[in-house]
Amino acid sequence: MTILLLNDNSYINNFGCQATMTALISMVTNAASEQKIVTVEQRDLAKDYYQKMPPTKFSPRGLKRRIVGSKPTPKIAQHFPKTVNEFQHYAEIWQNKNAGEASEFLLPLLSQSDLIIHNAELLNYKANKISLRGAFLLWYAKTYLHKKVALINQTTPAPGSDLVMEGILEYTCPHVDLVTAREPRSQKFLQDLGLTSTLVPDPVFSISPDLSKQNQIGDWLAAHNIKSSYICLSFISVLASSLNQQKSLNLFTKVITSIQDLGFQVVLMDAGSGSLRDINNALQDNTGAVLFNGDYTEFWSILKGASALVSGHYHVKGPGMVGSPVSSERGGKPTQAALAASTPLRGEGVWLPLHGAMVGSDSLAG
Questions:
Q1: Residue 306 in 3-state DSSP?
Q2: Helix, strand, or coil here: 219?
Q3: Strand 73-76 and strand 50-53: pairing?
Q4: Least confidently predicted of 10-14, 33-37, 268-272, 312-316
Q5: Average pLDDT, the chain
Q6: Long-range contacts made by residues 29-33, C-beta under 8 angstroms, separation at least 24?
Q7: Between residues 158 and 252, which one has the greater pLDDT?
Q8: Dist CA 292 CA 297 (whole Å)
Q9: What's the rounded Cα separation, in Å, for the pair 297 and 211?
Q10: How far apart are CA 364 and CA 366, in angstroms?
Q11: What is the pTM of this model?
Q12: How buried is residue 51: exposed, middle or buried, by Cβ count under 10 Å (0-12/13-18/19+)?
C-alpha cells in the first residue's frame, strides 16, 4: 500500500511543524501495515511552476520577432486553479497531461498511490495557495483517479472571517473520504456548513514522552549553570510583530527580571533568526536569561523539567476558535468574529492564549 502525504513541512525551522510530521508519519505507519509513505513538501506545493516560452526579441521598430537559437525565456505558468470554479477546467488539462511541470511531478505520485492524505497543518484556517492546491489535488484524485483521500489536522477559520476558505471546504469536503478536525470549534464550523468530520486532536499529542532526551538536557542545564527552578518563556513572536518593538522589549525585560526576583531562572525558548535573534540577544544582554537552541525533542525535555511555560504568542483568529477572548489593536472582522465565538471555560475564567493552547502544532506547549 502506497500512501502519499501532501504538505510535509518538517524541513521548516519550527518545532511544531517537525513534531507534527513525526507524529503524523508514526500514526500512519501504525495504522497501516506493509505501507510505503511518500511525502510532498510544502515548498513543492507553494512554488511557482514555469514553462519555457518561445525566445523573442524586439526589433528597432518595436515589432516582436522570433530569434532562432536564442535562449528561451521561462515564464510563470498557471498549472493550478485559482478558485474552486476552475477545478473542472484544470482537471481536464491534467488528464490530458498538458499542465506542464506541476502535473509531470505530481500526477505520477497521485496515480501510483492508494491513499492520498493532505495535512492541513497551518493551512486551512485561512485561504492560501497551498490550501487551494491541496484541496484541488484531493478533489482530482478522488473524482478522476478514484483514489481514497483524506483531509486531516483541519483547523478552520473563525465563522465569517474567510468566505473564500469556506467555499473551498464546502466544495471539496463532500468528495473526501475522511475529514478530521483538530478541535471542537473547527468541527462545529464544518458542521454548520453541512460537512461531516471526525474530531482528532493535533497529532503531536500522540508523541510519547519517551522521545525526550532527559539525560542530555541534564548536561545542558549544568553547562548553562541552571541549578535552581526555571521557567520557560516563549513570547518572542509578539515582540517581532509589535508596532513598537523597543517598548515591548522594555516590558518583557521587566517581566523576566520580575520572575528572576522570585528566585526562578529564565530560559528563552525561541532561538529565531533575523530580527527574532536580535531581540533574543537584547533580552539576554538585559537580563542574563539563558537562550535555548536545540531540536524539538530537546524542547520537550526542557519543558518536562520547567516549573512553568509562559507564552504570549497567539494568532488573532486562533483563540476564538477554542473559546478564548482575543483583542487586537488592528481590530477588523477576524477579531470581531473571534470575539463573537468566544465563550467562558467551565463557567468561570477563559482559555488563556498560551502558545500552542489554541493551535497545538504551533508548539509542543499545547
A1: coil
A2: helix
A3: antiparallel
A4: 312-316
A5: 74
A6: 32/1, 32/3, 32/115
A7: 252
A8: 12
A9: 6
A10: 5
A11: 0.69
A12: middle
